[in-house]
Amino acid sequence: MTVMETIAASVTIMGRTYKLRVAAGDEEALRKAAESIENQARSYGNMYAYNDHQDLLAMVALTQITQLTKIQSSLRYKDTDLAQRLQSIDSVLDGILHPGLGTIEPETEQLPQNSL
By the 8 A CB rule, do 57 and 37 touch? Predict the structure, then answer.
């Protein structure tokens, strides 16, 4: 088992700095996520009345989780659909390769007999 290397990172969202440890390869994604949250929160701040930044961050969280839920649902459907299609293809190929057989049995090779 390998231990994942982590690094200290900090991001600022709506004027607050958050310090955390992330996998070394995830720092860029973390910064992009923080930038996206900041931009979306500011956009909501321009469109809607709010009491504090927590209201804006809650709107961002709801929007992002809604999108994530839709994507996960779509992927589950696609995975199920793909599995069904592959099973159909497998059945067709079995029918072509082994006509008349309900199950596939290992074939035994027949050696030619020498007639001396």
Answer: yes
Kindly give the pairing relationship between strand 16-23 and strand 6-13.
antiparallel
CA distances in angstroms from 31 to 10, 65, 76, 106, 111, listed in the order given: 9, 18, 28, 56, 68
Reduced to 3 states, what is the DSSP secondary structure of residue 52?
A: coil
Q: Which residues contact 7 (CB under 8 A, 6 or more apart)?
A: 21, 22, 23, 24, 27
Residue 66, token pair as written in the block: 């809604």
Q: How far apart are the first and last CA of the chain?
A: 63
Task: Print burial letters for 4-26: b (CB count within 10 Å at least 16), e (below 16).
Answer: eeeeebebebeeeeeeeebeeee
Q: pLDDT by residue for the chain (116 residues), tens digit each?
A: 456 799 999 999 999 999 999 999 999 999 999 999 999 999 999 999 999 999 999 999 999 999 999 999 988 888 888 999 999 999 899 889 888 775 554 454 555 555 44
pTM passes above 0.90: no
- Residue 50, phi then psi, degrees to nearest 5: -150, 155
